[in-house]
Amino acid sequence: MNFQSYQHNYMGEEENLNGNGEEEIYWDAIAVTAPKFEHAEEFLKELQNRQNEGIISKKTFLISIPDPYINTGYEPMKTKNRSKSQEEQYEEDETFGEVPPHYQSNNNTSNNNNNNDNNDSNESNNQKRYHNHSIHNSKDNNGDEVENEVQHKPHYSKVGSGSSMINSLFVITEKLSALSGKSYLDVDILKNKRILLLLNGGIHQHAPLVNLCTKSFSMMPLKNIDILKRQNNKNYNNQEETEKPKRYVGDEPVYPIDILLSNLNEVVKNLHSGFMVSSTESLIFFNRDDSNLKSKTLWKQSGVSVITMNVGPDYYTNHGMCKINDESGEILEIAYKKPKEYLEGNGFISKESDTASIYTGIIFFCEKTTEKLLYLHNTSPLDSCTYLGVDSGSQLLKFGVFPDILCSMTKNETFESYLNQPYFYGSHKSLVKKARKVVWDLFRNTPIRSIKIQGSYYYLKNPSDYLSFIQTNINRNQDDDKNVISKKMHSFIACQDLPIKGIIVNSILTGKGKSFDTTVIYDSILTGDWSIGERSIVFGVKSLFETFYIRDNMIVTEIRLKSIKIKHSISESPKALIVLGVEDDLNSFYNDPSSRIANRNWEEFLLSSGVSPDELWSKGVPKILRTARLFPIIVDDQDEKMYDASLWIQNKESPPLSVIGRWRSSKRISVADIIGESYLLDYTQLEVKQQVQQLSDNKVGDGVLIVENLNNNNNNSSSCSSSRSNSSNNINDYDCKDSGNSNLNNSSENIYGISSNNVVDNIISNTARIKPCTSSFTLADEFSSKWMIEGDIQACFKWRREISFQVDSMEIEHILVQGIDQSILPFIKKWSDCKIPLSKALETLDRISLSCPLQYTGRLLSCISDTLAVYVNNQGGLRSGPARNCQFEKSYNYFRSHDERKGFLSLIKERRKWLTSYESMIRVARHYEGAGQIVIKNIVDTCPTELKPLDPSIYTICSKKDWVCVSLPVRIDLAGGWTDTPPICYEHGGVVLNAAIRIRGKKSIEARVRRLDEPVLIFRVGQTGDSIICRSLNDLMDYDQPHAPGSLLKSCFLQLGLIDYGDGINFANVSSVDGRKARTITTSTTTACVVVCKTLKQQLESLGGGMEVTSSSDLPTGSGLGTSSILAAGLITAMAYAFGYKYSDQHLFHAVLKVEQMLTTGGGWQDQIGGILGGFKEGSCTRFHSKNDKIMVTAKQLPMTDEIIQLINDHLLLVYTGRTRLARDLLQDVIRRWYAKTQEILLNTDALIQTATTMKEALIKGDIKEIGTCLLQYWNQKKAMAVGAEPTRITEIFNLVKDFTHGYSLAGAGGGGFMILITKDHCADTKNKLQEIIRKVDGFETVEIFDTEIDKNGLEISIEKHIEYLQVPPMNVTN
C-alpha cells in the first residue's frame, strides 16, 4: 500500500462501504513476523498475493517484521542423551521448532544439567559471553570490563513469541505513525484500528522434515475448504463468469495461512478495535455457524480474549490447556504439558465429553490493553525485546506470550508460581524475573477470558503426523467430491502406462512413473522412469534422469543452497538431496539403540556402508542425525552420479564402491547446516589476524564449546601447558597440505576454498583448549566467523513459484495445442497478480505459438493480445481500435502467405520495440488481433467458390447496355445467431434459423449491373449517389477499408477473381502473394518483392470492357436485418451474370463470407442465406479440424405449409428503434471472448444450438406461443454473447411492448436497428395499440412500426433494357 492511499484511509476521506452499501470492516494492518530478513521479503510477497486474490482487503496495510538480529555464537541444543529441563521443553514448543544443537562430545553430555542455573554466577570470570548478547566483554589492563569488537556476523535467534509480539507491536506503531506523517511514535495511531499480527515460528521440523518455506506458507493437500474472501476485491469488473474461473490444474492450492486468514476474516466482522495475535503453526477449522464466532458482544469485551477449542486426549499432555469458568468464561489457569492426572484432578478435562480446552495461540487484546502492551517497549528490562534494545547494546530478552504474559492474568496464578514458570533455555533468570515483575504489576488485574469456537484443531509436528492426517481424512469420506484431501493439487501429470496415485501437490510428472495411494509428491519435477514408494514423501526434487527410485517410508527433499563461493552451474543453484526415513528422529544419538537412519538402526547403516562416524561428525560435535554431514552438495543438476551418491543412503544393501567413493570425495552438509544452526569452529573459515596464543582454562559456563580469548601479550602465561608451549605461534607454521579426504568436516579445502584443515584439526584436537560452557560459542579477537553453507530461503520460494508457473505453462500449452475448450485467461490474470514478469508470460506463449496448429493460431494470437491487455490493467486505453500500422505490415504479409511461424517471429521482433508504455502495449494488442483476423480470413478462404459459365438454354445473356437487376429480401434471425460467425462456426459448429421477409410489401435490397465498352469500373452507392470511377488497380486498393467509398462494391468485384489485383503493392521479404508470381527488387536500403501483373485496363479489355454497378437499399445502415451481406450476394450475382458466370447457392454463401473477411468487418454466413433463399431456412457449417480441411456452409428450407407461414405473418411485427448499431464493435468483443473460452460463452454457445432445435420444431408446428418463448430465450442468449447488446433505450422500448407479445428480440447482433415481435393478438391490432403508446413517450419520435411478411422466393434476377433519359435542368418553382 502506498503512503497516500494509507493516509486517505487513516484520515477517513473514503467511505468504507461494501457492495451492499454496508460498512466494510477489515484489518487495518496485518503484520507477519519472520525469523530472517529473507523470510520477511518472501512472506510479504505471499501476503500481497493474498491481497490480490481477495483474502486480504485491498485497504489493509501489510508489514513483514524480521525478528531482531543479534550477534551471537552457537546456542545449545537439546538431545535425547540427556533429559530436557522444563525450561528447555517449553522453549522447543513455544518456538515450534528445535533449539540449536549442543555441539559437544558425547562424553560431556552427562554433566550438562548440573550447572544450568549458573548463568548469573559468572561475573567473576575473566571473560564472559552472554547467550544471545551482542557484546563480547573482557577485562582491560586495569581489570575493568570493556567492550571488545564483536567478530560474529549478525544472526537470528529464537527470541520467543512474547518478545516478537512486543517488537512487532512497536514496529507496527512506528510504521503507521510514519505513514500518517508523524515524526514521532504516535500511540494514538492505534485507536479505532484493528491490527493483526501473525507469529511465524520459523524453520521447523515438519513434513517434509526440512522446510525453509515454513509450515504456514507451504501448501496443504486440502480441498472443499471454504476460504472466505472479501467481495470488494474483485479485480476484473468486466468478468461475469457463471462459475469460478479455473486458475489451477487440479484443485486450487490451500495454505494453512489461507485457512487462518479466512477464520480471522470471520472474526473481524464483529471485532472491536484492538490487537489480535495469532500463531500460524496449527491447522484450525472453525465452524462458521458457531454462535460465539458471530457474537456481537464477546468480541468487544475489555481485557484479553483467547480463542479455545475442545480437543481429545491426543492433545492433553503435549499442549497448553485452559481451565475455564463455564459461567463467566474467565480463564482460571493455563497448564502447559501437564500430566493427564494433573489435568483430571484440577478440572481441566470434562468428564462428560472427555475433552479439554486447548489454547490455540489466537489472542485478542482490547484497545486499552494494547496500549499497555505497547508501553512495554519503553519499560526496562522489557525494552530489550525490541530491535531498538538490540541496537542500543542491550541483552535481548527472550519472552513468551505464554507463560510470561498470559499467566500473569489468570486467576489461580500466584506471584511466586508466576515467577517460577518455565523460561527460555539460555535466558538469564534474573533478567526474566525482573521483566515478569513488571508484567505482573501491569497486567495482573487485566481480565482474561476464553471464547470457545467449535471446529477442528490439528497440530502436525512431524512427518508421521502429516501422513496420518492425510490418510485419516481420506478414509473418513470416500466420496471424492466431499473429501477434504486433494489428490491432485495444481499439478501437470502426463505419465505413460499406469495412473499416478497418491497426493500430488504443485508438481510436474511425466515419463513412466509409479506411485502408491500413500505417496506424497510435493513441488517436484519427475521425468523418465521413476517410482516413489509407499508412505514416502518427495519434496522439491528436480529429476530429469532416466531412473529415480525412492523406497517405502522415505523422505527425500531437495534443498537449494546459498551459492556464495560455490562453483555451480549458471542455470541452477547448488543443492543437496536430503534422504531420510519418515520415523527418523533428528535429535537422537547414533549410539542410542532406538535411533534410526533411513528406516534402520545406525549400527546396521554403518556396517553395510562402511562409513565411520568420524566421516560424519567432527571432533566435539554431538553425534546426532541432525549434525551428521551425510548429504553431498550437488553443483550441477545434470550430474546423475551425484544424485546416486545421495540416494544410496536409502538402500539397505552395501553401496557400490564407485558410489561410496564419490560420496566420500564429495563436500557434504548436514540438516543443521541447511537451517542455519551450524557455526562450530571447524564449520567456519578462520582468519588469523595475530599470532595464535594460549587458551585460557576459565569456564564461562556449561553446555557448549568455547574458544576463549587469545591474548597477544600473554605468550608466557602461567596457564599455558607444556604441550601448548611447543606449538607454533604463527599461522604459517601450520602445515596446510591436502589430507586426501575432502569431507567438509575435516577437508583440507572446505567449500569456501580455504585451506584450513590442519589449523582446525590442531585446535579442535587439543581437548585442553576446548571446554564445555553454558554460554554461546565465542571466537577470539584473532578469528572471525563466516556463515557456513545454508539453505537458500529465497531460492526455495522461487522454486515453488517457478514450479507453479511451469505447471500453468504446460497446462496452457496442452489447452492451446489440443484445442481444448478451457480459458487460459485466469492463468494470465494470476500471473499478473503474482507479479510474473510480462516478458516471461509472453515468452511462454511465443514458444507455444511456434508449434501451434493452424486451426488454433487465431486463438493464440488473441491470447497474446489478452495477456498484454491484462498486464496493462485498463491503463492504456480501449482495446478495440485500428490495427493497420505499417510497422506490422511485414508480419501481416507472412500470415497472408500462410507462413504462420515466420509471422509469429516477426511479431515478436516488432513487439519488443513497443513495450515502452501502456498505450503502446494496447496498440500492439490490437495488431495481434489484426493478425488473428488474417488467420481467420485464411481459414474462411478454404470455402470453395467456383464460378461456372451460364447455360444459354436457361439464362438470357443480356446485351452490354442492358441492366442485370437482382432483388433480395432482408432476413430476420430467429435462433442460433453468432454460431455462424468465424471462428465460432468452424471451431464449434454452427446452426442458424432465419426467415426472408418483405417490408411494406417489397424486397428491400437491389443490385444493378451493366457492361461498358470502356475498360473502367463505375460504382454508385444508391440511385443518386456519386459515381466512383476506377481506372487503375490502385483505385481498388481501399477495398479493405469499410468506410472507404464503394468498398463493398469493390470487394465483391475482386472476389469474383476475374482480375489480378496485386499491381503496385510491395511485400517485403515475401516471394509470393496468393500464389501469384513475384520478382525481387533490391535497393541499397531494402529488399522488396513486387507482385507482377497486368494493369486494370489490360485485364478489363481482355474481359471485353468494364462495367457500371449500382446498389440500393431502402433500409438504414445498421438495421440488423443483414443488409450488407445480402447486398453483397446481390452484387456478386449481378456482376457474375453480366460477365456470363454464376455461383451455385452454396458457393455464393461462401463468396459473401469471403467478402466480409476482405472488408475486415468479419461477419458470418446466416445473412446471405436469409436473403438468397426464401421462406424459413436452417443453415449449418462444418468444422475446420486441420490444415487440409475446408469450410462448407449448407442451408435448407424448412417444410412449412402456406397456412402456417400466413399464421406467423399475422403475428409478426417489426419495430425500428430509431437507433442504428455497428456490428463490428460487438463482433470484435464476441470473437475476443470466444477465443478466451470463458465458461459463460461456451455454455451459451451450446444453448444457442439447443434453442435453434426447439425453435425449428415450433416453426414447423406453427406454435406461436412457443415461437415467442424461443425468440425471447434467443435474445437473452445474444445478450450474454455480446456485452452492450441492449442499451437503455432498447430496454425502455421492450418494457413498452412486452405485455403485447409472446417474445421479442433485436434483429442481428443487437445494440439498435430493428426489433422483432411475436404478438399475442393479430399484428394489425397490436400495431395500432403500440403506436398510441409510443406516440406519448418523449424521445421516441423516431421509433416506427413496420408491416412485414415472409418472402417465399428469395433472390430474383431480372433484365432491364437500358433507356437513355434526356437530362432536363430542374425548373424553378415559385409559390
UniProtKB/TrEMBL annotation:
The keyword Nucleotide-binding applies. GO terms for molecular function: ATP binding; fucokinase activity. GO terms for biological process: GDP-L-fucose salvage. It holds the Pfam family Fucose_pyrophosphorylase. Residues 67-160, 715-734 are annotated as: Disordered. Residues 1255-1336 form the GHMP kinase C-terminal domain. The keyword Transferase applies. Residues 1093-1175 form the GHMP kinase N-terminal domain. It comes from the Eukaryota. Residues 188-634 form the GDP-fucose pyrophosphorylase domain. Residues 105-125, 715-732 have a biased composition (Low complexity). Keywords: ATP-binding, Kinase, Nucleotide-binding, Transferase. Belongs to the GHMP kinase family. This is Fucokinase.
